Amino acid sequence: MTTSNGIIIRSTHLTKIYPMGEQSITALDDVNLAFGRGEFAGLVGPSGSGKTTLLNILGSLDAPTSGSAEVMGLKVEALGHKQAAELRNRHIGFIFQTFNLLPVYTVYENVEFPLLLLGMAPAARKKAIMDALDWVHLTERAKSRPAQLSGGQSQRVAIARAVVKKPELVLADEPTANLDAENSHHILHTMEDINRDLGTTFLFSTHDDKVIKHLRRKITLVDGRVAGDEAIAGR
Amino acid sequence: MIIPKLAVRNMIGAGAKTWLNAVVLSWAFVVIIGVQGLYLGFDEEVSRTMIAAEYGGGQYWVNGYDPYDPFSIADAHAAVPAALLSRTEAGRAAPVLIVQGTLYPQGRVFPALLKGVDPLQKLLDLPAGVLKPVDHEVPALIGERMAGASGLKKGDVVTVRWRDAKGTFDARDIQIAGLMSTTAASIDEGQVWLPLETLREMAAMPGQATLVVTAKDEGLAPAVAGWTFKDLGFLLKDIKALVKGKTVGASILYAFLIFLAMLAVFNTQLLSIWKRRKEIGMMMALGVTRGRVIGLFTFEGWLNAVFAALAGALYGIPLLGYLAAHGFSFSKKVSDSFGFAISEKLYPLYSMALVFGTTALVFLITAVVSYLPTRKIAKLKPTDALRGRMS
Known about the structure:
The radius of gyration of chain A is 17 Å and the shape is globular. Chain A is built from 7 helices and 10 strands. Chain A has one domain (about 40-65, about 80-230): Rossmann fold. The longest helix of chain A has 18 residues, at about 180-200. In chain A, a hairpin with a 2-residue loop joins β9 (about 215-220) and β10 (about 225-230). In chain A, the strands form 2 sheets. In chain A, strands 6-7-8-3-9-10 form a 6-stranded mixed β-sheet, with helices on both faces. Chain A has a 4-stranded antiparallel β-sheet with strand order 2-1-4-5, covered by helices on one side. Chain A is of the alpha/beta class. By secondary structure, chain B is α+β, with helices and mostly antiparallel strands. Helix content of chain B is about 50%, strand content about 20%. Chain B has 13 helices and 13 strands. Chain B has helices at about 1-15, 15-55, 70-75, 80-90, 145-150, 195-200, 230-235, 235-275, 275-285, 290-325, 330-335, 350-380, 380-385, and strands at about 60, 80, 95-105, 110-115, 140-145, 155-165, 170-180, 190-195, 210, 210-215, 225-230, 330, 345. In chain B, strands 1, 3, 4, 5, 6, 7, 8, 10 and 11 form a 9-stranded mixed β-sheet that branches. In chain B, α2 (about 15-55) runs antiparallel to α8 (about 235-275), α2 crosses α10 and α2 packs antiparallel against α12. The chains are: A alpha/beta, B alpha+beta. At the A-B interface, α2 and α3 of A face α1, α9 and α13 of B.
C-alpha cells in the first residue's frame, strides 16, 4: 500500500492543538513531510517540540486537529477506531521508550501477540517468532518473563514484537532513552539490519546523539514546526 | 478465539491474585449450593414423611371439613360412600374418623382430637396394629410428643370424654397401647388414635368417616358426591410455603455471599484496569480494538467464576457428597423447632438443576460485574493509556 512514487507516509498541513482549559497548546503546526519505503529517518528536537505527537498521529493512535496524515494510503483523520486498529495491526510496529512489554507473558508470548491478532496459523506463527527472536539474538530467552530481562534485552524483545509481522513501518519513540551506550549501539545495529534486510521503514523520535548518528535522514522539529529536513550523506 | 486464549493466559499469569479471587468466589458457590441442597432435602423429606404418615396419594374430605376450623369437626362426618368403601376393602383407601374429645390425665383437662383408623390398614405409616383390641380396655395410640405433653405413658389408662353424633356427652377409659415415634408432628401433637370401629361406636357414627386417605399410586380420583378430593398439591401447599419461607432467610445469605464475591471481582477489575492501563495502551497500539480490550477484560473477570467453579468442585464435591451420603444429624428438639416434619437425620439433595442453575446464575452475575468497570476502556485514548493516564 504505497503510492506510485514509493511514499508510504505523507503529512499535509498537519496541525495538532491540545486544549488546556481556556488556553491551547499547538503541538504541531503546519507539518508537511513525506517518507518513502525503506527510510531510516528521525524526528529530532528538544522536549515538547512535537516529535511524539507526530509519531502518534502517523501511528493512528491520535488524530490531527487539522490537515492530513496519510499512512499506507489511508487518511488517519478519516479512520474510525476499528480501521485505525486494523492499520496498526497490519502495517505498523511500535517501539517505546519504556518497552511496554506485557508483564505476565513470556518473551515468546510477547512477540507472538501481534501474530495472534493477525490470526496467523500456529506453524507459521512459531517460525515468524523464532526468526524475530533470532534477529534480536534472544532465542535463548524465549521462555523468560520481562521481569527477568535487562533493559537492553527488553527493548530487543520490543523490537522483535514490532517487526515480527514484517510491517512496512516501525515507529520508535525514544527507543534508547532508557539504555546505556552499549545496548543503544546493539539496538540501533539490529534495527539497521532489519531495515536493510526487510526494507522496513523506521521513523524515530529522538534527541539522543547515539541514534542521530545512525539516521539517514534527520527532520528537526522546533515548537511543532519543521525547522530542518536533511539527508545525511554517507549513510 | 483469541480473547479466551489471551484471557486464560493473563489470568494464569496473574498467579496468586487469580486464585485468591477464585477461592473466595468458590466459597459462595459451595455455600449456596450446600444450603440450597439442604432446603431441597427438607422439602423432599417433609413431603415424603407427610405423604407416608398422613396424606397418602391424596384425601377425600367430607364436605364441610376444615382441619383449621375446630367448629367444623363436630359435623364433618358422613357414611363412607360405596365408591370409596370398595377401595377401602381392596386396601386402596383408609377411612379416618375425627371426633373432638377431651382427656383427663391425672385429673388435668387435655383437649385432643380422637382419630379412628382401621388397625389393619397399611396405607399410613403409623403403628396402627397396636389398636387391635386385646382385652376389655379400648386401645389407644399416641405419639411421643403427645405423651410428653400429657404425661401419659404406655399402659396408662386415661378417661376420655367426647360428644356423639346426637350431641350427647359420653366418657370412657382408654388404655395407651403404644407410643409412636414420628417426625410428623401433625399426627402426634394433641391426637389420640383409636380403632376406627370403636370410635364409630363411641360417637354413634356407624360406617362414617371424616376423610378417606387414598393409596399413593392411586392415579385417578373420581368425583364422589358429598366428598371433595384434595390432591397432594393442596395438602402439601402449607408445608411447601413453610419450607419456602425458611428459604427466604437463606436467600439473604446467598445475596450477601454473592455480593461479597462480586465486590471482590469488581474491585479486582477496577484495580486491574487501573494497573494495566499502559498494557491496554500497548494492546491498542498493537491493533487490538477497544471492543476487544473490553471483551478481554470482561472475559478475564468472568474467568474468576469459572476458576471458582473448578476450585469449588475440587473441595465442594467431596464435602457436599459426604453430607448427601451421611446426612446432618439433629436432635428431636432441633428438628421439631423447624415447624415441620423432618427426621433427626436430614439428607441434603443436590440436583443437577440446583448445581447448574446456581453455576449459571453466578456466571451471569460475574459476567455483568466484570463488564461494568471495563466501560472506562471505551473512553480511553491509546495515547493517554500509553502514558499511564485514564482519559
